[in-house]
Amino acid sequence: MNIMKPQFIESPDGTRIAYEVAGRGPALMLLHGAGKDRRDWHKPGYVERLQQDFTVISVDVRGSGDSDFLTNIEDYAIEKIVADLYAVADACQATRFAVWGYSFGGNIARYLVAWSERVVAAAVVGVPFGPAVNSEFDQFIHEFTVKWGPLADAYRAGALDAEKHQSAIKGRIPVWIACFQAMRQWPPIAPADVQHPTLLLAGSKNTSTVQWIETNRRALEDTQVQVKIVEGLNHLQEFSQVDRVFPRVNLFLKEACGI
Questions:
Q1: Containing structural domain, residue 162
Q2: What is the pLDDT of residue 2?
């Protein structure tokens, strides 16, 4: 596992964003899941495999990894996150690029492929289209906020002792309290909004996403979105089972990028 020292750019709002670049070929940006960072793409071997054909740009989404630790809801407006990623692409001289996002990163990828002519293709893994926060996720956010909101409030107020302060930082609790609340305000993205080839991949045991797919088959017709359901995988395995996920996404991205 070859994790390089990150590079940094400053986003338009002054946030410092960490990223790293490996390989050569068409640019491909990787967006991690919640509670993860760019290094997680190395652990199962995604970067090692992808860099044979792509210039792989793995990013720490703001609040994650080595990017700036932000704790206000307004810091996580989707427009600001998208601006971060454009700035990273600019720094990499990637006038056009593909994107592969898993879970939280897949949620973000939907906005890139719907809003930007620069994005040539997207792989959205583990999350449906529609609202950024569906009813199941909203319930999770409610429970998470009830449990951890007081700790995040105390962190922002500077009222934690040294041990709890460090624990809050390590667990990124203030980040996710703010980010999850902000996601409730992100606008919905419909399949018809997508401008370029997009793969929506889900495991058959990811019931909420599979149910959305089955309910919205008509809305998916005549759009740029194609669907792949991988039998037997749950949401976590949509990332961890690299040997079952990688070949499908890699083939799609190579065809979309003309490799």
A1: 133-185
A2: 64
